[in-house]
Amino acid sequence: MSTWANLGLQDSASPLMEQLIFFHDHALLILVMITVLVGYLMFMLFFNNYINRFLLHGQLIEMIWTILPAIILLFIAFPSLRLLYLLDEINEPSVTLKSIGHQWYWSYEYSDFNNVEFDSYMIPTNEIANDGFRLLDVDNRIVLPMNSQIRILVTAADVIHSWTIPALGVKVDGTPGRLNQTNFFINRPGLFYGQCSEICGANHSFMPIVIESVPVNYF
Ligand code: CUA
Known about the structure:
Blueprint: H1 15-45, H2 59-87, E1 95-102, E2 105-110, E3 116-120, E4 142-145, E5 149-156, E6 161-165, E7 170-174, E8 180-185, E9 190-196, E10 209-214
Parallel strand pairs: 1-5, 4-10
Antiparallel strand pairs: 1-2, 2-3, 5-8, 6-7, 6-9, 9-10
Helix pairs in contact: 1-2
Bound molecules: dinuclear copper ion.
Transmembrane segments: 27-51, 63-87
Domain Cytochrome oxidase subunit II transmembrane region profile: 1-91
Organism: Drosophila borealis
């Protein structure tokens, strides 16, 4: 989970989130290089005294500064597309969890595992345990096995919600009348916190998600 002074991404708990962080760093590095170059050029313009009265066009330089940025953009576009398709790849999930967004709580169904169904409400601040996290803990956690492929089906019963867990790289909208699918693979045990991230009404901030990742034989 995110704690104080954490301005970047959370530590990943899944291979896909790891790839997302790599891509973020890659794109940021390119961005820094562009910013430094353009910043330097703009700064040096202030000290430029050269003037050419007869300069009307420059075919070659126009060509270079049109094509060069296009090539740089390809270095972002191709890894981005790779990731985009990688995120939608489903490889034989061992558990399917259906999460349904309500105003303002989540309910879950393990449709292929004993048909377990339960609601998951945030624990109010006045009832929170001493070691609990305010606005982030729930009464009924989702328990999922680690090191196995998990499929998530997301929908909503009233308005649009969004099932979002930063550490797993998952962010899927729950839309009434639709069923969205995603998948992930948790590669370590622990608690992973998430929140609804679609402005869904007055208590939008108070419908967190908690995943308890456990070894398969404990599941
Ligand atoms: Cu549900 Cu915001």
